[in-house]
Amino acid sequence: MSEMNGPFTGGPTLNDGVTMPWLGLGVWQTKDGEEVIHAVKTAIETGYRSIDTAAGYNNEEGVGQAIRECGVPREELFITTKVRNPDQGYESTLKAFEVSRKKLGLDRIDLYLIHWPVAGKYRDTWKALIHLQKEGLVKSIGVSNFQTHHLQDIIDDTGVVPVVDQIEFHPLLTQREVLKFAKAHDIQVEAWSPLMQGNLDVPLLKELAERYGKTVAQIVLRLDLQQGVITIPKSVHAERIVENAGFFDFTLSDDDVKAIEDLNQNHRFGPDPDNFNF
User: NADP-dependent oxidoreductase domain location, by residue (predicted)?
Assistant: First the structure.
């Protein structure tokens, strides 16, 4: 993995040779139009180069507009989007991809993900992603919310290992099994809802924030980095977007990392991929 030398430079090298930034802006639940345009432009002005959206977020057009207007060359940005659950399946994924590409106004997507492992469909969806990559329309392909058995299925089926598995990951949900499998197969783990959807009122995290002179959010995001996990905190507030990038100038001790990991309760703020009404 690349040196962790700053929030906006370097990042892990994925199993296909592409480098992805450690930090990105998530835009889940960010309204299309002014809200998402402002958030994305603010992030890019701050120095962020990775933006994570999805067809299901209904804000790809705003993200695309912000990318066009931000003043940073397209090749310096890393844009992720995802195929919606209703669009899964081989042919329907290819069509859905074209819709996303047009909305974003991009010739090529940097990372295209299967949003959820829809039973009976995600294997064919994965084959469609492989096709899109072979056609040069997508630089890298991966998955989101896949448990180890879903990952094993698509690897067994195609021999193609996803570069990324984007999962709910935070101090109350440490996903040890997925992390272990990902490491063994050279899959990069990426955290969504790293800040527990704002549920940061945890005594240990507050105590550590005080001790390190950091915010609770910065403590949690630093933990992600030290565990080799890409992180994409979501915010629409300029000061938070800036603040969330401030976790590269300190290091948590091994004891403190262990203490945070011990907070795990296997608690999800989002749906369970194995028990989700797709």
Answer: 23-264
